[in-house]
Amino acid sequence: MTDFLDKAILLGLGVEKKLKDIASEFSGDGDTETKDSEGEEKLPPRERLENAIVSDGTAAIKELITLLKEGKDKVENEFLSGTESLGEKLNIATKVELDTVKEMARVAREKVDSLEKRLDKLEENRAKEN
What we know:
The chain is mainly α. It is 82% helix and 0% strand.
């Protein structure tokens, strides 16, 4: 237990030192531009830090979007395969099968209508004959 507390204290001191270093960098010469070894002007430390944070954030967001798209595709595929297997197990008709049955029913209705018309004409002819 004491080992854990010692490590926590040392970690806290390390974080505190790092924050003090960053704060001194910003408060000291933080707003002045410096030159690198090639003589080109660099951004002030604050702007460099902001740029680094933005670029890291952008990269993290792009990675997150990629992971979300992959997850969405995986969930869709799993859902579709699950529903297809469930439909097969429950012996549920597919859309193609339902469309076929609808077409067969339409054709049967047309045949019944034509047969009814023929029957009506035959009955009329028979009534005229009698």
